Amino acid sequence: MSQESTHGQYVSEPEHVSVHTVNTEGSSFTPPGDGGQQQNQPEPAGQPPAVPPPVVPPPVMPPLAIPSVAYEQMFPAMMAHYMQHMAQFMPMFQPPPPPQPQPRIVTFKTLKDNGAEEFRGDKMGEPQIALDWLEQMDRVLKNLRVPDADRSELASQMFRKGAYDWWKRIDQDPHTPKPWTWDRFDRAF
């Protein structure tokens, strides 16, 4: 073939031209210097010869299909490993401690509003009145969830006149064991 291409341009050898009978515009053309195809070209003076890059084979991909038996055996181990890995990086979740119950403040008014009655101690000849008052007071204090250590002090707030005088004498007596418990209060009453 001549050194003029079908487009009327001068192209140095080698050249690849496909001749088609119908349409020459669609011919395949390999430009010079493409793909390391150049041959017999003189090396420029003073430069080392060009070394083609090394050919690196594509990586070998493992098969995508894992046998179901192997997968079923590996899955629990993989999950265990994953969970251990996550545990190292995630702080352990510690739920906050439950809120401490606020101490209930029981006042004289609270006792009265919940059914406690004052005790005067003026009818000492009728012990059933004192026993009824003590039983009612015990029920009110339990309903209010008053701790045992606080019950005798709250019950004594309901004393009036002779009952209050009795309470002062017995509470100030050095032979009376302290602190008061509800059982001691019940026996002393």
UniProtKB/TrEMBL annotation:
Chain residue ranges for the region called Disordered: 1-56
Biased composition (Polar residues): 20-30
Record field: compositional bias (Pro residues): 45-56
Name of this protein: Retrotransposon gag domain-containing protein
Organism, scientific name: Cuscuta campestris
